[in-house]
Structures are given as structure tokens and as C-alpha cells.
Specification:
By secondary structure, this protein is of the alpha/beta class. The chain has 25 helices and 25 strands. The strands form six sheets. The protein has a seven-stranded mixed β-sheet with strand order 5-4-16-15-14-6-7, covered by helices on one side. The structure holds iron/sulfur cluster.
């Protein structure tokens, strides 16, 4: 028996077990049989694990995985030590991907809406009926010459599946295919486009730098490629060479900030000005390596003028400037807290200018632009924003909407009135495997596989200054009656017929993917090196998790024209200070990210690394502020902006400025399964509806709030007792000079 056939049989057991759990009793579909191991399949030995290489798709970083499978069940996901992005590491979200696969709240088969929109009430239908219904809707649209009224909205897909989805939309006659994600880092990409000429994220060589100046980049937790950066950071601090230094600039101390040598709690919205003041000081002190284009612009940002605006002493700005310029190599990075302001592009450009002035671009230990993405990387279309979709829906320009992987109803402020706009779309289909807040608005659901059941590929952005192409392969047979995402598009193309069927002719997505890699192989000589033809290359790539080439050193110069995007002023916050005294910082929490991790019980159970809180939302308030408001830890408060109100218990946090409060993003779901629904609060709900007009990125740090005592309600559940030692001397400390003296004495 072949492995595939065997997995299919095992899959019957998997479906039975899953359905039994959902129904609260053990049940088996009719005709299911137990297969004895008298003649075991070729690569399955009872009791012996098989490992398959694949890719984690729970965020855009593209970490390589090794999945341990026993008797057809995925047991454990580990990082692939050979993969250049994560080198064996894997974050908590990646570790939890088995809980997405076997989640009791997965949508197990196609559904048709029977209750009002948003109610989540559905009836089961067959795949045949689901595909025919959606195809009939599209055919009708086409027959009325309204192809442009078909929109496809997905998460930021890349690689071959993105190409297939794009082909489907254009063959249908529509140009409306958009990507959406809360943390798409479009401001950063736009800043890089206008400064270095590529709309992508370069390789920040944290591993080899000696002085890392991070403007709000929580790179060891949630920023861009956290496993890759954490790995690099570990080497920077404990590698063979001299230990590097980390300085973190941010109003609220993140997990990365907690590991820094110095924390600079600049006033919210002024970090860009601080970066420019540091750059100007470098120029003024004659320490600049490449400042010819910037002298004039930078002269407006004198340290003495910026000090009071940023709330950072002038001496500290000067000290940072000297150390940043003199330490070789050094590196500055612009994280989410900088790029999430209304002038986020300006902040990211300011940091790029600082890097150029200090001579950090294109050098090891600095900013290394990624060259070739092998033509398949994630493309950012700055013109396609969530506001474009809302306006189109309100203007009756969307008749059919298909959504996959994106949950804008949860991640868009209420002020955007997205739900109202969706109610005007006559037909919505979702390909989600979970009943998230956006899927709950769908008329029909055609559930796609999770990544552990599906084929795919990934071309990570940022890369590692080397070409990387990874393969996603199914490691188990489908647990439920879901389909490969690619197969849904292919079967839908066949059902729609005409141009679409003529354009998409592959029998299935596995074949489509393989053909795509054949093209990649024939175009790229490096891939062909050392292989005995494509089949040999393909099998090796499957075994290894993909293909990656040697490093290619790329360089770039920062274009002086980027200066036109510098706003030169602190970011704006909505709400009068007298009424709303505190800046609100909503931030991506380590486990939940933009809310996608909230349906996985391991992640709910995982103590937050800074507060140790589990299963809920909290608001971080400086102890001095809390005392002035008469609040103590655990008190329930209302957090009110000009746009709405949420409630959460207080967490006393000395690592936040007294004029700022912070709330993690991720909880407050109205749908999304038993572990997520009805738990905590979503700070995005009370934000203004602001997106950057150039990039389309949402401005998360954009409102002030007031804090008032709330009704008793949710409890603060946390693992830590007290953060104080109460004079017990639990943590013994010693100064560096004392330590050196003691070391000498011992030697
Ligand atoms: S950073 Fe975490 S969630 Fe993102 S790809 Fe890597 S393991 Fe997956």
C-alpha cells in the first residue's frame, strides 16, 4: 500500500475522532474500517515517527518546519535546523500549528448561511453544491458584463498560490484582487521603496552588528521575522566576538526592550524626530560617512530643539549619536511602534536616513537589501487598501466577494463601518477553515485545508540576503472534508468554464505547483547545480524543505527624494489632552499576533512574557498614574477614546510612560471558536479609522484615551505573584567592576 492511500484510510479514523469530539460522543462514519498493520505502507512503521519538512504559515516570516507524524497523525512541529530563516527555532505560534489542524472548532465541511448575516448560523452542504452555487453566482455576474464587480480579498499570499489566485481573478475579467493584513508593514515597505528603490523588507543583519538601535521593533516577539531575529540577537550577544549592545527606543517596554542594555522611553509619536536628531548630531560632530544628500534636511533637527519634544535629554541624544557612529558595524531598525503612527512612513524613512549617514547600508552587520526573490515573492500593491474595498462596497461596485485568510472585521476599527459596507455586498463566500468574524458574514463557506494538509510554497520577505524558496507539503491526509486552497480555485475555474477554465487547466494544485517549480528550476541555473534533473531536484527539495542559494551581497543608496515624505512633526493623536489624557498604544501580543492565535488553547494558556497574564486582556498603566487615579492592580477600568469604549483589568507596569497606556491586540472575539469567543477586549474597536494615504497601512497609535473605574467583571489571571522582592534578596546583583574584581580574585 502506498503512503498516500494509507493516509487516506487513517484519515477516516481522523474524521471520526474529530466529529465525535464536536458532537460530544464517539462516532464513526458508516463503512469506516480499521486497517491492520500486517502489511504496513512503505514508509510507515507502527510506533516509529516519520518527519516531514514543510513551512509554518501562521505569519509571513516563512520559518521552515519539521513535522513529526506517527501512524498518520501530526504529533509535533519543530523548527527545521537546516532552514536559513529560522535555523531550527520556532515560535509559540508555530509550535501550536497542530492545534489549528485538530482544532475542535474547525469548519468541517461546506456550509450555507441559514441565519442572518453575522449570526454564524449555517447548514451543511456538499462540495458539489457549494462549488455549483459559487460558480453560478460568478457566471451570472459575467453574463451581465459585471466581472469587475467580483473581488477577491486574501491575506498577504505569496508564491504559487498567489499566482493561481491572481490568474483566476484576471481570467474572470476582474482586476480586483487585494491582500490585507493588520501587520503587513506597508509603511516600512513604502519607506524602503522611496529610499532604496524596492518595496520590500531588507535583511537586517542583527547577528553581526555591534550596536543595535531599535525604534520600537519588538523583534524577539512579533516584528517581521521574530525567530530569525532572535537567533541573530542571541549570536550578537553571546557569539564568539565582542558582545553587541542593544538600545531600545519606545514608550512602552516590549519583550525586546526588556532585553536591552538601555531603554529610551521617548514621547509617543516623536521617535522619528529623535532618529533625525541623532543623524544630525552625527553630521555636526563630523562622524558621518555618507551625509552629502542630507545635510540641509537634517540641520532642521538639532538635538537641543528635539530634546524637549521627544522628552529625551540632549546629552543622551548626543551620547547615542556618538556611540552609534563610532561603533562598527551599527544598525538602526524601525519597528511597529514607529511605523504604526499616522506618519509611519516618515518614521521609517528617518531611520533609513540615520543608517545611511552612519554608513550602515549594504554592509555586514547593517542593512542588507535582498536581491532576487526568484520572482515569486510577496508583492505589495499600495493602491489596494481596505478603504478601497469599503468604498467599492458602499458604491454597489462589489456583487461577489471571496475572502480567504484575512479577518478585516476583527482588525479594522468600528469607525471604518466595514460591517455596514459588507452588508451591501449581495454575495460573500469564505474559504476559511474557521468561523472568524469576517467569515461569519459569508453566505457560503468552502473550507480550505490548514497548511499541514496542503501543498504550497513560500519565498520569504525578508530573506536572509540569499535566495530562499521553501515547499509546503501535506504531512497528513485531510482531517475533515476540506479542500486544498489551490484545488478550490482550480475546481471553481472548471465550474465557471469559459476563459477561466481555458486559462487554468492544471488537474490539481499539486501538479500546478510542481509545474511552477519546473519553471523556477529551468530559469535558475543555481538550482540545477549538482542535481540529476528536475525530479531529483524536486525530491531533494521536498526532503530538505526547499532550496536556498548562497548569500548575495547587495547594496543600495538612500535616495534624497525620500526627504519629501518626512513630516518633521510629532505624530497626531485624536482627542483633546484635557479630556483624554493618555496616549493609547495597542500592540501585537507575542502569541495572538493580530488575533489569529486566540483560538489555540496552548496560546491562551501561555503566560504573556512581560505580564504573565493568561486567557484575557489587560491594560498596562504606570504605577504612579494608577496611584493618581486611585487604581490598584486587577481593578476593572473603562478605556475610552472619542471613538468608543472597552473594559479591561489594570496591570501595573513600571515599563510604560506615565502619560501612556497600552493594551494587547488579539482578544475580544465575537466568533472564532470556543477558546477565543467572548474573552477580553479588542483595542482596535476604539481607534479612529486612519490609514496612510500612500501605503494603506492602518495607524494603530493614533488616539488618546481616558481611564475611568469600570464595573467589576473580568478577573486578571496571571502567573506571577509579586514583582517585588520585599527585601528578601532573591535576585542577587553585582556591579560590572565588582564582578571583574571578584573574577580576578578567583583566578
Ligand atoms: S515566526 Fe512563528 S508564526 Fe511566524 S513563521 Fe516563524 S514559527 Fe511561524
Amino acid at each position: 500500500m502506498k503512503r498516500r492511500d494509507f493516509l487516506k484510510f487513517i484519515g477516516i479514523g481522523g474524521v471520526g475522532a474529530g466529529a465525535g469530539f464536536v458532537l460530544g460522543k464517539v462516532s464513526k462514519p458508516p463503512g469506516a474500517k480499521l486497517i491492520p498493520y500486517l502489511i504496513p505502507p512503505e514508509d510507515i512503521i507502527p510506533g516509529v515517527a516519520t518527519w516531514y519538512a514543510s513551512v509554518c504559515t501562521l505569519c509571513g516570516a516563512g520559518c521552515g518546519t519539521l513535522v513529526r507524524v506517527m501512524e498518520g497523525r501530526a504529533k509535533k512541529v519543530e523548527g527545521n535546523p537546516g532552514h536559513p530563516i529560522n535555523r531550527g527555532g520556532l515560535c509559540a505560534l508555530g509550535q501550536s500549528s497542530v492545534q489549528a489542524l485538530y482544532n475542535p472548532d474547525r469548519i468541517t465541511k461546506p456550509l450555507k448561511r441559514k441565519g442572518p448575516r453575522g449570526s454564524g448560523e449555517y447548514a451543511e452542504i456538499t462540495w458539489d453544491e457549494a462549488l455549483k452555487t459559487l460558480a453560478a453566482n460568478l457566471i451570472e455576474l459575467k453574463s451581465k458584463n459585471e466581472s469587475e464587480k467580483f473581488h477577491l480579498l486574501t491575506s498577504p499570499l505569496g508564491g504559487t498560490i498567489d499566482r493561481l489566485a491572481g490568474e483566476f481573478v484576471s481570467a474572470f475579467g476582474s482586476s480586483n484582487y487585494s491582500h490585507y493584513g493588520l501587520f503587513q508593514r506597508k509603511n516600512l515597505a513604502f519607506a524602503n521603496l522611496s529610499t532604496m528603490g524596492t518595496a520590500s523588507i531588507p535583511h537586517y543583519d542583527i547577528e553581526n552588528t555591534k550596536y543595535l538601535l531599535s525604534f520600537g521593533a519588538d523583534f524577539s516577539s512579533t516584528w517581521v521575522s521574530p525567530v530569525n531575529y532572535s537567533n541573530g540577537y542571541g549570536k550578537m550577544r553571546q557569539g564568539t566576538g565582542e558582545r553587541g549592545k542593544l538600545v531600545q527606543v519606545e514608550p512602552r517596554l516590549s519583550l525586546t526592550g526588556a532585553n536591552a542594555d538601555e531603554w529610551v522611553p521617548a514621547k509617543p509619536g516623536t521617535e522619528a524626530l529623535l532618529a533625525l536628531a541623532i543623524a544630525n548630531t552625527i553630521v555636526e560632530k563630523g562622524l558621518a560617512r555618507d551625509a552629502s544628500a542630507w545635510r540641509g534636511v537634517l540641520s532642521r533637527y538639532k538635538a537641543k530643539d528635539m530634546a524637549s519634544i521627544c522628552d529625551v535629554p540632549v546629552e543622551r541624544i548626543e551620547a547615542m549619536a556618538v556611540e552609534f557612529a563610532r561603533t562598527r558595524p551599527s544598525l538602526a531598525i524601525a519597528g511597529d511602534s514607529v511605523s504604526s503612527y499616522e506618519n509611519g512612513i516618515s518614521g521609517a524613512i528617518a531611520v533609513n536616513i540615520l543608517n545611511q549617514v552612519a554608513g550602515n547600508i549594504g554592509v555586514i552587520g547593517g542593512v542588507m537589501p535582498n536581491g532576487d526573490d526568484l520572482g515569486n515573492g510577496k508583492k505589495i500593491d499600495f493602491g489596494r487598501k481596505i478603504s478601497t474595498l469599503i468604498s467599492a462596497a458602499n458604491a454597489d461596485k462589489i456583487k461577489t466577494l471571496i475572502v480567504y485568510g484575512a479577518n478585516p472585521v476583527f482588525t479594522t476599527p468600528k469607525a471604518a463601518r466595514l460591517e455596514e459596507a459588507l452588508s451591501k455586498v449581495p454575495f460573500i463566500a469564505s474559504f476559511s477553515s474557521f468561523m472568524d468574524e469576517t467569515t461569519a458574514h459569508a453566505d457560503i463557506i468552502l473550507p480550505a485545508h490548514t497548511s499541514l494538509e496542503d501543498w504550497g510554497d513560500d519565498f520569504p520577505d525578508p530573506g536572509v540576503a540569499a535566495p530562499v524558496a521553501s515547499i509546503i507539503q501535506p504531512v497528513v491526509s485531510p482531517v475533515f472534508e476540506t479542500k486544498s486552497l489551490g484545488d478550490i480555485f482550480i475546481e471553481l475555474a472548471r465550474a465557471v468554464g469559459g476563459n477561466v477554465a481555458g486559462k487554468i487547466t492544471a488537474p490539481n494544485f499539486a501538479e500546478y505547483l510542481k509545474a511552477s517549480w519546473k519553471g523556477l528550476y529551468s530559469r535558475n541555473r543555481e538550482m540545477a547545480a549538482g542535481t540529476l534533473g528536475f525530479e531529483d531536484f524536486w525530491n531533494k527539495a521536498l526532503q530538505r524543505g526547499g532550496w536556498w542559494g548562497p548569500s548575495r551581497k547587495m547594496t543600495a543608496t538612500v535616495s534624497a527624494r525620500a526627504g519629501e515624505h518626512l513630516t518633521g512633526a510629532p505624530a497626531r493623536f485624536e482627542g483633546e489632552e484635557a479630556q483624554y489624557p493618555f496616549y493609547l498604544i495597542p500592540y501585537a501580543q507575542t502569541a495572538y499576533m493580530d488575533g489569529r492565535g486566540a483560538n489555540l488553547p496552548w496560546l491562551q494558556e501561555l503566560p504573556d512574557p512581560m505580564t504573565s497574564v493568561v486567557w484575557g486582556t489587560w491594560v498596562e498603566i504606570n504605577p504612579k498614574t494608577a496611584a493618581s487615579l486611585g487604581l490598584k492592580e486587577g481593578d476593572m477600568v473603562n478605556i475610552e477614546s472619542p471613538f468608543g469604549k472597552i473594559s479591561a483589568p489594570v496591570y501595573l507596569y513600571p515599563g510604560i510612560r506615565p502619560d501612556t497606556v497600552a493594551v494587547p491586540i488579539g482578544q475580544g472575539h465575537s466568533h472564532y471558536g470556543r477558546y477565543a469567543k467572548g474573552r477580553g477586549a479588542n483595542p482596535i474597536e476604539i481607534l479612529p479609522y486612519k490609514e496612510d494615504p500612500l501605503s494603506g497601512e492602518a495607524a494603530l497609535n493614533s488616539t488618546r484615551v481616558r481611564i475611568t473605574r469600570g464595573a467589576t467583571g473580568e478577573r486578571l489571571v496571571k502567573m506571577e505573584g509579586s514583582t517585588k522582592e520585599f527585601g528578601r534578596g532573591i535576585v542577587q546583583t553585582v556591579s560590572p567592576s565588582e564582578f571583574k574584581r571578584m573574577k580576578k580574585e578567583v583566578v
